[in-house]
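Model it.
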Amino acid sequence: MKPKFKWCLGLLCLLALGCQKSKGDSSLSRLLMLSAAGSTIVRPASGATIQAPTMSLTVPQGALEEETTITYEPIDVPAGTDTIQPLQAAYKFGPENLQFSKPATLQICYDARNVNERGLQEKTMQIQYFDEESGQFVSMGGEVDQASHCVSAPIYHFSSYILTAQLLSAGNNAPTIGGAQFFPGRVMAGQPVTVRSTVTDWDGGSGIATVRFFYRTTGSGAAFKSVVMIPDSNDGSGQFYTAKVPGADVTSAGLQYYIQAFDTLNAGRTNPATAPVALGTVPGDTVFAAAPIRFQTPVSQISAGFSRDLTVQVRGNASATYYPVAAETLTFAGAKGTTARPTWLSARYTAQKIGSSFLEATYGTLNLSVPINVYPGVLSRIEVLYNDAVLSDPFNVNAGTVKQLDAAGYDSFDNFMFVQPVFSVAGGIGSFGGPANYGQFTAAPLPADTTGTITATLGGGFSVTYNVLVHGSGASCQFDVGHFDTSCVFN
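Modeled.
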């Protein structure tokens, strides 16, 4: 088939598709099934953005540990529930269960006409992954752009992802619970576990009153314990609630759980919907003895003023996968720098003072300490030195004498840096030696006190100038009868 004919055929298919959208999105799904499967090589140092007809996946720099071929393909849309309605095609990503050290951003675009014709509201759209074993949807949240008709959300691992909307009834609706995400993905005996879930109240007249996470050891039949889930202050979407299960309550058997939420009008919902008859489960593990905790990216040196965003990962014996977790403490040892959390999951170490140090983090009973050397940062200023002290201003020197000067550079944190500026003199007060006598200033043999300047200049616009007073040596002369020259010095 000729290329031009193929292009025309494709255009006719798209036109035909547009005419059929009012009947549902099955034609769109079929078209995506035929055209959107593919793969892309993603390198840790650069990341990548993967594009398909209605989907894009942005993997940031440092999110992967090694070069990885990422695959993607549209798959059949799973059946909806009483409240969750899947839209268009679901996307399955590989390698299966791939974990990201930093969240990737998944964007899925939609046909607004199809959403409206099905009686759904764009504001309720979220990206969810579908757990085939449990048959449950787990929400990753979603920022809805109703101008471009696209929804974006962070994802932390690979699964099958689908764009969904919520079915709302007239009057007050109970909060929507988006299922549970666990960090680490397999809970480890004796170690805490962070639980995250989207909880959303779609009604304008009410708000979220309380969210609780109920849990017990899998197979124990024990009474449920519960912890309050609180809004995630580091989540910009305003949808995520988090809780932490203490390590003392976690065993290698894993956890059974459910989530319960109530709004301010006392409308409540649980997830799973029939809990505690049916429960969610998360598998358990024991701590990997050899190397249970690490930073996802090796780091051994950093310059003052620069930052490294790292993710702490932990691993159990039953899995070869390291799972990202939010470190409980962060330390830049020896007061060599500061720490912060740019996102709820990542750790930011910012260097300030030069020298040997350690980047430290803890998670539960696990401790992580990595040696690092801090080097000077960006040059901020230079100074001229005499006898290892900053040159006085004015600098006093006797005529005809030689002074050995030097220079030092400093970054914005006052860290010393070796520099070699060019010295120059103004005012006829002397001169500097050549390369063999770098920094050697010889004052001119001036008879009277004379002022001038010394300047040290470094490429890039750095310079510093000092005033210099050369004390004159005086002039010998003879006394003539009837005349006295006040500039003379009598020998």
